[in-house]
Q: What sequence folds into this?
């Protein structure tokens, strides 16, 4: 989202010349135009500034004429560069012919798209293509009024990529693919990837991103949400970073869904159930309204389709003024005419007040298709730091649900458990007190949860190494504490269930 502009986005490179994309990729890698290479060249502060679309530090760091400096100025800083200098690094005539570069007059050439190195989860060297000046996606305060622009990697993109379950699957669907980041990730573990977008320009750029990253081509289809999906077509994985912003009107395709309130996110979640194969996952980022007189958790539970387990995590809540300001800044409205800015701001508040919306939540929604008679829906608030990637944590959450569903209290007491890795115990109380007021178990991995336990729960968790059954451990604790073992066996399974559900204990 570069400087505020009302112009038509520029012509794109040809997407039907994969041979040129391969040559361009080889040249980029040969010059160390990679995430690691950029970090080495620019240094951490300038590299981080680029992610905020601040270019001055990188301009200062690329005053030389090495191949890597040339590529940074050309593709990341969008500066015209002498044809002769580019010819030393890239197949310049082929890039001009296929539209990756354009002549700017005189002896200089310029890039037609932003090409940004992106490190894959396994150390892969990938490249994300986006419109010029739009490399950072979402709420960056960069500002673009271009209707059809395609953004690059933003915090939302990397969050969704990090929480996605990465088990090998036959088929994956990326709804609203944008510049193709989720499709690129999915191509590493899905035999077949389908990517959709309402914006045909986004599908073109996704094809470029995949080709330049050396990934297999995807099945690209134009249309809104599930419209391009054929009747009866199902998938093992569905991912979407949709245009979830709740706004009056649909001014900007890349972020405004065009439906009233949070209806777009609700529709997406509700329709995903019938598109999933048994055991398949659907994972979304979403915004939802906090409506006066309504429990937000109940609102989200009502979205979950039949036949699906769900895990919904609210990561952030903003009051309506904060929310309106965030997205008005995202579009650069704060830098335009003050009267127009105030009118737009007023329109947002008017819309929220008409719907009795007092705040907006942001978070993650994961569905899993299940054959269970009674699916489990977990809705929680967790605004605290987590450790990405969380894909394995998400998958393990649903595996634990299956385990708990199939084990009644008697089976739980007969089972063996192990304390999860990197769980520590904290005792909270007044200095010098003989006994702690309460004990907290804390995870240092994954969701980094903390939960209060009583002395029995703490003692039980500490002994769990997989050798003794839960029942035998409780009998030993009862003997130590002088308690009735039958009563202890009776009241402790609920606490064990909670510790298993939240990932503090793993079935051995």
A:
């Amino acid at each position: 989202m570069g400087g505020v502009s009302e112009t038509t986005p520029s012509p794109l490179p040809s997407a039907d010349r994969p041979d040129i994309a391969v040559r361009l990729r080889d040249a980029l890698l040969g010059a160390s135009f990679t995430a690691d290479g950029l970090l080495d060249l620019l240094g951490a502060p300038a590299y981080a500034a680029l992610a905020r679309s601040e270019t001055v530090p990188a301009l200062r760091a690329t005053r030389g004429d090495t191949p890597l400096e040339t590529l940074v100025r050309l593709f990341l800083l969008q500066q015209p560069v002498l044809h002769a200098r580019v010819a030393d690094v890239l197949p310049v005539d082929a890039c001009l012919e296929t539209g990756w570069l354009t002549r700017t007059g005189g002896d200089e050439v310029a890039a037609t798209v932003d090409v940004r190195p992106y490190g894959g989860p396994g150390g892969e060297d990938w490249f994300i293509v986006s419109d010029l000046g739009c490399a950072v996606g979402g709420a960056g305060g960069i500002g673009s009024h271009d209707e059809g622009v395609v953004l690059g990697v933003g915090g939302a993109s990397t969050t969704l990529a990090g929480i996605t379950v990465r088990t090998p699957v036959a088929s994956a669907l990326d709804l609203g693919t944008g510049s193709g980041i989720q499709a690129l990730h999915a191509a590493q573990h899905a035999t077949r990837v389908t990517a959709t977008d309402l914006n045909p320009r986004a599908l073109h750029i996704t094809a470029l991103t995949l080709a330049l990253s050396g990934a297999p081509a995807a099945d690209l289809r134009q249309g809104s949400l599930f419209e391009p999906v054929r009747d009866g077509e199902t998938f093992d994985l569905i991912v979407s970073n949709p245009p979830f912003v709740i706004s009056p009107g649909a001014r900007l395709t890349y972020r405004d869904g065009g439906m009233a309130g949070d209806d777009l996110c609700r529709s997406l979640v509700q329709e995903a159930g019938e598109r999933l194969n048994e055991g398949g996952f659907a994972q979304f980022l979403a915004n939802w309204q906090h409506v006066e007189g309504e429990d937000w958790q109940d609102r989200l539970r009502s979205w979950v389709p039949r036949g699906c387990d769900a895990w919904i995590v609210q990561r952030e809540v903003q009051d309506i003024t904060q929310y309106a300001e965030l997205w008005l800044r995202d579009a650069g409205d704060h830098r335009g005419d003050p009267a127009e800015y105030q009118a737009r701001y007023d329109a947002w508040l008017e819309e929220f007040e008409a719907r009795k919306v007092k705040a907006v939540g942001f978070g993650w929604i994961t569905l899993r298709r299940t054959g269970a008679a009674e699916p489990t829906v977990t809705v929680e608030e967790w605004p605290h730091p987590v450790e990405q990637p969380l894909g394995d944590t998400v998958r393990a959450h649903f595996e634990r649900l299956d385990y708990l569903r199939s084990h009644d209290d008697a089976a739980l007491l007969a089972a063996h458990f192990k304390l999860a890795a990197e769980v520590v115990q904290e005792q909270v109380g007044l200095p010098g007190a003989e006994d702690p007021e309460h004990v907290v178990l804390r995870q240092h991995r994954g969701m980094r949860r903390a939960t209060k336990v009583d002395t029995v729960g703490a003692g039980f968790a500490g002994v769990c190494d997989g050798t003794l059954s839960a029942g035998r451990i409780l009998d030993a604790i009862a003997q130590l504490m002088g308690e009735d073992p039958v009563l202890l066996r009776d009241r402790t399974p609920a606490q064990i269930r909670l510790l298993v559900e939240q990932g503090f204990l793993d079935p051995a």
The longest strand covers residues 276-291.
